[in-house]
Specification:
Number of strands: 7
Order of helices and strands: HHEHHEHHEEHEEHE
Number of domains: 1
Largest sheet: 5 strands, parallel
Strand content: 15-25%
Radius of gyration: 16 Å
Distance between the termini: 33 Å
Strand order of the largest sheet: 1-7-6-2-3
Helix content: 25-40%
Structural class: alpha/beta
CATH architecture: 3-Layer(aba) Sandwich
Shape: globular
CATH topology: Rossmann fold
Length: 208
């Protein structure tokens, strides 16, 4: 369908096809429950549900593997506008993307989580922080791994930049898809142990 001058990436009809969760309005939602007993997360939400072979999965594939950075920018702003409906956005000090290993950035051309986070920051009028977290180990693909395998795959892959002062900061971690939450858990542990409060915003949530 041809887009009008006021539409970007998706026409209005396709936008309405997106499987929105409404989790930004729901306390103790299924995304928050993933982290119960694992790491202390203040708030968590995902804008949409992730389903295999669905419309949204095709769009995520385009921005992750086909250099469609414009699609990631669109969805980052959508995530931010969705987050503006929450009762807790005012608590956030800064927006932080899940980091990507430099070798993967060179292959892919950009970190899609950074593009999403930039869109969130622009839509919510929050600052964007980069470089606080570093991914120093390149891991194997998380696809088709269970929760334990995913955690073992990423648990030692991240570190904080030296002399980073996070005491009393409330950080919004941004990623594309939450499956088991292992990557977000590993990053959140580092931030919480450094004195920060952590909340999470993802584009999509893969229910089990």
């Amino acid at each position: 369908m041809e887009l009008t001058d006021t539409e970007q990436i998706l026409c209005l009809r396709c936008h309405k096809r997106l499987p929105f969760t409404g989790y930004q309005l729901l306390h103790d939602n299924p995304v928050e429950k993933i982290f119960w007993g694992r790491v202390n997360i203040r708030h968590a939400m995902a804008a949409c549900y992730y389903r295999k072979n669905a419309f949204l999965q095709q769009l995520i594939y385009q921005f992750k593997y086909k250099q469609r950075e414009d699609i990631a920018t669109y969805f980052g702003r959508l995530m931010g506008h969705t987050l503006r409906q929450s009762s807790w956005l005012y608590e956030i000090d800064t927006v932080l993307p899940i980091p990507m290993h430099p070798s993967k950035i060179r292959r892919r051309g950009y970190n899609q989580a950074m593009v999403l986070a930039n869109g969130v920051a622009l839509a919510t009028e929050k600052t964007l922080s980069a470089g606080i977290l570093v991914r120093h180990l390149q891991t194997t693909s998380q696809t088709n791994k269970g929760r334990l395998s995913r955690w073992q795959n990423v648990s030692d892959s991240f570190s904080l930049q030296p002399n980073t002062d996070l005491k009393d900061k409330h950080i919004l971690l941004v990623d594309d898809v939450i499956t088991t939450g292992a990557t977000l858990e590993a990053c959140s542990r580092l931030l919480v142990n450094a004195g920060a409060a952590v909340s999470i915003c993802a584009l999509a949530f893969a229910r089990h």
